[in-house]
Design a protein that fits this description.
There is one protein chain. By secondary structure, the chain is mostly beta strands. The protein has no helices and 22 strands. It has a single domain, classed as Hexapeptide repeat proteins (UDP N-Acetylglucosamine Acyltransferase, domain 1, 3 Solenoid). The termini are far apart. The chain has a nine-stranded mixed beta sheet, with no helix packed on it. It has a six-stranded parallel beta sheet with strand order 3-6-9-12-15-18, with no helix packed on it. The chain has a four-stranded parallel beta sheet with strand order 2-5-8-11, with no helix packed on it.
Length: about 160
């Protein structure tokens, strides 16, 4: 018996760490080696790679792929269809050249935002929907646009 729940259509590989109270919804795939904290919600159609790490109390909306090298802190919200990249200069013939992406505690990422690899989103930062983040985002910073630019501080 597990202390977390997954829908019957979810594929959870052997060797995954999943915290107490976490829920994984329809058609998700969590690869062996992935780490998911407690009390998280992983929405429909998500993919979590083997070297991805997700903290506690995270809410990941539908259709988000979290690739190798993405490290998500606690209390993070990721909107539907947000995209993380993991290679700066993707080519079919280049294998395993990943860059880490760090999402610090309390950050919010809006729907359809793209987060380029190698960046850090600061604590309680806010990325607006549809934005393309190519540079680090500071603590409490609000960014939006293409490319995302600082628009002020986000205090909630």
């Amino acid at each position: 018996m597990t202390n977390w729940w997954a829908h019957s259509t979810a594929v959870i590989d052997e060797g995954v760490e999943i915290g107490v109270g976490t829920k994984i919804w329809h058609f998700c795939h969590v690869m062996s080696g992935a780490k998911i904290g407690k009390n998280c919600t992983i929405g429909q159609g998500c993919f979590i790679a083997a070297k991805a790490e997700i903290g506690d109390n995270c809410h990941i909306q539908n259709n988000v792929s979290i690739y190798d090298g993405v490290k998500i802190g606690n209390d993070v919200f990721i909107g539907p269809s947000a995209v993380f990249t993991n290679v700066k200069k993707p080519r079919a013939y280049i294998k395993g050249f990943y860059q880490d992406t760090i999402i610090k505690d309390g950050a919010t990422i809006g729907a359809n935002a793209t987060i380029m690899c190698g960046v850090t989103l600061g604590e309680r930062s806010f990325v607006g929907a549809g934005s393309v983040v190519t540079k680090n985002v500071g603590d409490h910073e609000l960014v939006y646009g293409v490319p995302a630019k600082a628009q002020g501080n986000f205090i909630l």
